[in-house]
Amino acid sequence: MIQLPVYSFQVTFLLLSAVMLTRYFLLAGMFRIVCERSRKEPIDKGTISSRQIKRDIYWSVQSSLIFALAGTVLIKLWQAGETQIYYDFQQYGLWYLVFSLGIYLFIHDTYFYWTHRLLHVYQFKKCHFVHHESRIPTAWTSFSFHPIEAVIQALILPVLVILIPIHWTVLVSFLVIMSLCGLLNHLGFDFYPTFLEKKFSLISATHHQRHHKQVTVNYGLYFTFWDKLMKTEAGETHG
Q1: Which residue, 37, 148, 184, 204, has fewest beta-carbon neighbours within 10 Å?
Q2: What angle do CA 6, 8, 12 make, to 5 degrees?
Q3: Total domain count for the chain?
């Protein structure tokens, strides 16, 4: 059984802030280097200014601290026994491990689609425009949110772990997928095969970059089915 060290709220927040900031700079920096050295053609050949990169990093640091705060709350709830996070693989059966991951991804994608779409309607200029200032997104853009939007997106995970049982290893897998999808969607390069989007409705960098260009289309995070269902998808997405 995993036992997290018990620290004060403040110390836990500081430690998690260091983890979140390291995650951002390490992953975004690594993926940016991979993109620059890749032989693939970028989706958009426009110029990305140093000013955009600095702005994205500025907002991403703030977002990382907000995500760290949400993570601190989650850890404290976990340590207090107030969550549905469990340790025994057999508690709900092995089949539930895959099922619970699918449920978390579906609910999070649904939450993201609708909150994202609402931000375009009610708080675009005051809040969500921060993210859209980067018309040609890069890996540095992946966590570039106004603090209000960062809070909105951070709220869902503590709610999920309070309501829906999940094994701690599946929770870690979910967090990894969440981080990687946020990065891959903003790279400006498509790295995975076309059939994953066409056959499994996975969102590609091309799909999300079209959202940065056309603004009122392609709102999803993991999957394209909400965009298809609500007729907010911008036609062909790859290429």
Answers
A1: 37
A2: 80
A3: 1
